[in-house]
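Priority: low. Protein: Peptide synthase. Input follows.
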Amino acid sequence: MTLPSANICQHLQHAAVHSPTELAVAVQTASSTLSYQEIDFNQLNAQSDEMAYRLNANGIKAGMKAVLMVTPSIDFFVLTFALFKAGIIPILVDPGMGVKNLKQCFEESKPDAFIGITKANIARRILGWGKGSVKQCLNVGGSRIACFLAGAKAIDDLPQNTASAPYPIAALAKDAMAAILFTSGSTGTPKGVVYSHEMFEAQIQALKHDYGIKPGERDLATFPLFSLFGPALGMASIVPAMDASKPITANPDYLFAAIEKYQCSNMFVNPALLERLGEAGESKQHKLPSVKRVISAGAPATIASIKRFSHMLSSGVEVLNSYGATESLPISMMPSSALFETTEATDNGLGICVGHPIKGVDIAIIDITENPLKQWDDNLMLDSGSIGEIVVKGPMVSRSYYHRESATAIAKISDGEHIRHRMGDVGYLDEKGQLWMCGRKAHRVDQTGTDKKRYFSIPCERVFNTHPQVKRSALVPVSINGETLPLLCIELDKGLACSDSKMLYSDLLAIAEKHSHTVGISRFLIHPDFPVDVRHNAKIFREKLAVWAQAQWKEA
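Result:
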């Protein structure tokens, strides 16, 4: 959808006019009583208008950048929509990325203002976040003493608005910077992705048309960014008490209670939460009759966890597995019923099918290279079935990283008026036009020496994961006698005892010999507990495992 100017808040204004008293947001405030604070569309629109006026009166105005570190709450929604309305650029970061990465993010983005809860403001003050650029600090919630410790003005003390008219929302050029969203850092150094309102609009249209979300629905919101799309879609966001940066720690009872209380029709869950809820549902024989759609994203969920979770759903309800990244989301989508039909192919090392492209998205596969590609040429495309780097084009694809010219040059390819994004993932398109994922480009192992061969992480690992004692595996390179060779780290299923390591080793060798793409893998190491990212609990830190494996092999 091409717009001369845009603002995501236009959708909120529309909902406030057409369904003013309908629920917009409900946030669990006390886990002990399962009580919720609620706000309707008219109230959310009015309160974000009021906040936009008050931010302006305090000197925070259009074009400025403001860090927003506020836990999911009514305040979070009001402030985010206020920033968008005022044309103030929110900087959104994942607190789970670690202190060092957070400081780097703020140094790069150079925010003018810092809006956060007391804990975030105290951390800012102690650790010097944004020290060279932040001129205004606002504290959300907390007492007077808390504000003093935070070195910030209480947001409730901002000048009162005297205007009676609705706030005149900023209409930005379609490709103007509207927000900076930092990647989590789970697959590399966090980078600030420049978002425009055109990108947000494209995501809203995809959720409407490809996912079928309609006004009046209710969504169990487990991820802050996605929860913002609820009010923009005329859908209520129901926010349970949980640490959104560590979904694996969520209490399933709270989430099940929220779904039942509000009769949620939609759920957005990452693989870790999908598995946790599925296990809880299986043990409690719980059902989710109100849920009509489940969207899973962030990392590939296992077939077993999707099947377990699906037992709670009514017949015909799909788990929609979405592929994409902060730089471009969603790109493709695969319903669980179709995914189940690809289980055998995945177990035999053909990769993970992530479905057909979303409407308006073009997916191409190019040769693997670390070099920048300035200009797109159709001759770069590989034939179907050939594995290479995944490149995408569409209205939800970001054009650049913020103040990261070298990263932008590596990841972006100019294609006329459009930009193609190199996903950093490898895969292939089959004859039906479906995309198959074969892992991160950086996680391939190129064997050197006499027997040169290229190994891809997902095709290799999924083959070995079929062994009943293997929980998961990770392909890493090791240097032996000056040659780079493949090694497989193994994490065993803790519920099963490995009685004979020699037998396990023999089994793994036999598996390797069965498939042409795993022949040559003959080195295996058992690791007690793989290092994984906090949010998804699924993205394995293979770089850390590679260092560990190299040390282990030398000691051996």
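Residues 444-555 form a domain with the GMP Synthetase; Chain A, domain 3 fold (CATH 3.30.300.30). The chain has a mean pLDDT of 92.
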